[in-house]
Amino acid sequence: MGKKKYYVVWNGLEPGVYASWQDCLLQVKGVKDARYQGYATEEEALRAYRAGGPEAGGRPAAEAGGDEPDAECLVVDAACSGNPGPMEYQGKYLRTGQTVFRFGPAHGTNNIGEFLAIVHALALLEQKGARMPVYSDSATAISWVRQKQCKTKLPRTARTEPLFALVARAEAWLRGHPAHAPVRKWDTARWGEIPADFGRK
Fold it and tell me: Can you tell me the distance from the alpha carbon of 136 to that of 78, in angstroms, rounded to the nearest whole number?
């Protein structure tokens, strides 16, 4: 079992602190400019709620880590031969190790692959009506997902245009689905390589 999380809703149908993701989702789904965040402990959640936002107090659960990852989750990773170069990414269901999607190769960068892998996982969960976290070991990609923008410096050329089309679709999906499943940082130092790793290091 994963460590229990608490969710703060600052802007939603009924602001407050909620003890489950499902309860939080009911308050923010479909709400324009919804503001919410998961926290590792109830104390951190209450402190952040009273402070008015995550920047004022309490560490987000995605950054605070836990004793172990949630067994019911998707884990994602990307690999790139050269940077840029042939890039691919995949997602796995942690409990069974089953590969649930795989993409590539396509000419790109590792960071773009990590970003697309997270969004692919989020969209798949939304499509299936499943509510479980997505873990990535890329702080950069997680940041891009939160900002709803892939801030790559890869040149846009005829060769990379197909990948940029995917990036645009991913960014549009994030803007249209603000109440997506939680995205969390995989703690490699404590848990080892993320199980979606391609094993090419």
Answer: 9
Mean pLDDT score of the chain, rounded to an integer?
Answer: 86
pTM more than 0.70: no
